[in-house]
């Protein structure tokens, strides 16, 4: 059942979005008044990594999980999530689309629970190549990324360059979440929306299927010898303890593994300072290490202190007792929850280059909306991008996504100034981390 708020801040569009939120697996109940958490109830088959997939969708839609209860018997799970929009996003939450994404993330019921039937195979997401050319301006890449997200299309890779005549030539590798069988209709719709963003009637837009319907492969870090080692630092404990922006009134990140409280589960107890996507980062680490969540409870305070208790199992159903595996888990959680994104600005000859690095899921799925938030910060600062590209890079045993931006110098804002560069880094981190 869906409860509707009487004075919906999103107007009639939100009413329309919420019209079809009733579903056996996903139910969204809106708070009865502004500021009250919205409750998402999910009841479906369980599988390893389900919490990560659900948390990713909620993170992508600009929502913060302030409380959670998770339980499963190994086959069926019940998940309750209390969510609120991050500041400034309350009017832009697309609840109907979120419900659709969460439902698609739920596994199909076990065959023993449903009548035999001929199920159509789930179509593979189409991979597109989008090429555009238009007059350059500050915020163009951000506007294009937002338009693509509104079309339910994810940006997998970007290459952008400003030509000598001032034109912006942008190439995007895209993943279409719509899974529509007719490419022609999708092509016309996408190009129409993109051209409206490009503005000029002379703008060029072409959408085509990518070769073999596949993304480019990741490359080894040795292909990029000029990348600074600082991007791949692993000592997250030292970073968290010495960070100049750490609020001294907030508790330090702490994590404990306990095998004494349960005869069949390992207990993880984590205390943290809340930020955007932190539960996703935790669940992502567990998924990548093939660890299941049998029961979990998350709580946060209004001041941003979070406590997370998780009873976990290995994929084979056993407790986590091996000391080496425990150390690996502690290191991964500390790194992914304390220091998941690195942002630095370096001099590259006469140019100024912005570098952003983040680890991605083991299956190659990138952190949601990261390109949007980086380019939004630059747009808000009125900084133009001369050249941009992204690449997935293998470093050690982790897969990373690296974004590189050559920034355009401005007479009113000298990028050669350490103070200005530090200000840019902090603005980008603030948008990416919500702190």
From TrEMBL:
Pfam families recorded: ACR10_N, ACT_ACR9_3rd, ACT_ACR9_C
PROSITE patterns noted in UniProt: ACT (PS51671)
Record's keyword annotation contains Repeat: yes
Keywords: Repeat
Domain ACT intervals: 129-202
InterPro entries xref list: ACR1-12 (IPR040217), ACR2/9/10_N (IPR056816), ACT-like_dom_sf (IPR045865), ACT_ACR9/10_C (IPR056805), ACT_dom (IPR002912)
Domain of life: Eukaryota
SUPFAM superfamilies associated with the record: ACT-like (SSF55021)
Protein known as: ACT domain-containing protein
Taxonomic placement: Eukaryota, Viridiplantae, Streptophyta, Embryophyta, Tracheophyta
């Amino acid at each position: 059942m869906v409860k509707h708020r009487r004075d919906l801040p999103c107007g009639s569009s939100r009413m329309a979005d919420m019209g079809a939120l009733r579903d056996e697996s996903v139910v969204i109940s809106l708070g009865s008044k502004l500021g009250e958490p919205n409750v998402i109830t999910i009841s479906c088959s369980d599988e390893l990594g389900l919490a990560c997939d659900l948390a990713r969708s909620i993170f992508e839609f600009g929502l913060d999980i302030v409380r959670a209860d998770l339980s499963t018997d190994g086959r069926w799970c019940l998940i309750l999530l209390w969510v609120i929009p991050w500041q400034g996003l309350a009017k832009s939450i697309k609840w109907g689309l979120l419900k659709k994404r969460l439902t698609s993330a739920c596994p199909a019921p076990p065959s023993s629970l449903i009548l035999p039937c001929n199920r159509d195979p789930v179509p593979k997401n189409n991979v597109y190549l989008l090429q555009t050319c238009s007059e350059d301006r500050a915020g163009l890449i951000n506007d294009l990324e937002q338009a693509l997200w509104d079309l339910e299309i994810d940006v997998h890779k970007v290459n952008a360059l400003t030509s000598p005549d001032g034109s912006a030539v942008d190439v995007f590798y895209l993943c279409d979440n719509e899974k529509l069988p007719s490419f022609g209709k999708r092509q016309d719709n996408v190009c129409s929306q993109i051209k409206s963003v490009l503005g000029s009637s002379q703008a060029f837009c072409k959408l085509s299927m990518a070769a073999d319907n596949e993304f480019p492969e990741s490359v080894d870090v040795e292909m990029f010898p000029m990348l600074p080692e600082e991007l791949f630092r692993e000592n997250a404990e030292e970073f968290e303890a010495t960070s100049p922006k750490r609020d001294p009134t907030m508790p330090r990140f702490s994590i404990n593994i306990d095998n004494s409280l349960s005869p069949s589960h390992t207990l993880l107890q984590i205390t943290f300072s809340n930020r955007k996507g932190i539960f996703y980062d935790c669940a992502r680490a567990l998924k990548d290490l093939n660890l299941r969540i049998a029961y979990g409870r998350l709580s946060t305070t209004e001041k941003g202190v979070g406590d997370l208790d998780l009873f976990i199992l290995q994929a084979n159903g056993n407790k986590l007792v091996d000391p080496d595996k425990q150390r690996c888990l502690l290191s991964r959680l500390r790194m992914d929850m304390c220091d998941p994104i690195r942002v630095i600005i370096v001099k590259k000859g006469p140019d100024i280059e912005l570098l952003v690095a983040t680890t991605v899921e083991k299956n190659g799925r990138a952190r949601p909306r990261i390109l949007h938030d980086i380019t939004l910060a630059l747009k808000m600062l009125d900084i133009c991008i001369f050249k941009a590209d992204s690449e997935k890079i293998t470093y050690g045993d982790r897969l990373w996504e690296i974004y590189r931006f050559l920034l355009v110098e401005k007479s009113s804002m000298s990028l050669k100034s350490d103070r200005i560069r530090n200000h840019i880094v902090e603005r980008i981190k603030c948008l990416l981390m919500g702190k």
